[in-house]
Amino acid sequence: MKTTPEHNERIRTMKFFSVYPHYVSKVEKKGRTKEELHQVITWLTGFDDAKIEEMIDRKATFEAFFKEANLNPNAELIKGVICGYRIEEIENELTKQCRYLDKLVDELAKGKKMEKILRSN
Fold it and tell me: Which Pfam families match (predicted)?
């Protein structure tokens, strides 16, 4: 399933702060913690807790969020389907990065071991 220009634009302008509470709720509902969520976000973006909070306070768009991120070189190991899209087939870089984050949050909520989520050996 290919992303459309409209879909990519919606992702670009979506605010991280508006999605973040849903991430927290999703993982906590499944017995995981906000700290584990931050560990996953930090692994993907290089952001520490203060930077994550700054992005929330600034009401940063996903475009700004990922523009400031230092994406983990192992992020390309994140594969599979999320939100109906096969991640490795997404051509728009920003949309792919957002789906990386969605996939990591999904794996955390599903109880996957942290070493597997963070693509560690």
Answer: DUF2200
